[in-house]
Design brief:
Blueprint: H1 2-54, H2 58-62, H3 77-83, H4 86-118, H5 125-136, H6 140-153, H7 160-166, H8 168-184, H9 188-196, H10 201-212, H11 214-230, H12 233-238, H13 247-255, E1 256-257, E2 260-261, H14 263-297
Antiparallel strand pairs: 1-2
Helix pairs in contact: 1-14, 3-14, 4-5, 4-7, 4-8, 4-11, 4-13, 5-8, 8-11, 8-14, 11-14, 13-14
Length: 299
Amino acid sequence: MSTATTAAATPAAMYGKAGSLRRERRWALVTAYVSLVIAAIVMLAPPVYMLLTSLKTSAEVANLAGNPWLVRDPTLENYRALLTNPMFMGFFWNSIKVTVLVVAISMVISVLAAFALGRMRFWGSQFLATGVFLTYLVPDTLLFIPLYQIVGSLGLLNSTWGLVLIYPTLTVPFCTWIMIGYFASIPKELDEAALIDGANWMQMLFRIFIPVALPGIIAATIFAFTVSWAAFVYPTAFITTPSEMPITIGVVSQLIRGDTFAWGQLMAGALLAALPPVVVYAFLMDYYIAGLTAGATKG
């Protein structure tokens, strides 16, 4: 009798447990989606507002009686004014020049340094690897004053070449750290087999490690690109000549005259400045996440 009762009660208990799990899973999904919706609204509200403002005329922006989230008479005049302005295109070219050079310099130094610290084990390599990462943790606001003196002593103030010199101090430490973790995740059997076959260290780097570690290299490249393209503190302190300004400070400094703000062109310029990083992340986000994950789990 008791056996039959137990057998009859077991399916009901299992059903109740399964129903409880389904309810918990449903509430977890609801909570996750609500959190995502709230986060999306918070994160997307500023760029959406910027886009709407960039499509307004100066008169509509100045009309405080209207709804700021509505565009009554959309226009592309703000974009046309910027894209036909030689000074704005000069800002864009300066940013491209600085970014390309900084990314190239940073990746050459980072790949070589990470390969030496991650694979060519020698006395003090772990200490040096940790020291490289610790330099990245020093705030920019503490570094730009001594760097200003160094750049000034070299005669590179008010020059994009000064930015090319100092931006790698921001990008190389973190890129090296990412690459150390990625190189450390590659099996040792690969370089041991290459050494047995007579390959030297540089051949191993270019023929084995760089192809295998390509996601990590792409992640480091994206990081260097983002830092050099979006930097604001250093160019603000080091450059005051409009012809040498990158786009991050050129738009702000030239479209704000005293207490007069060209809001439509400011928003249009900010969106145009943000477009290249958005495009890069849209196409290479998977590589960036893979590279950061590998660098965070190995070391």
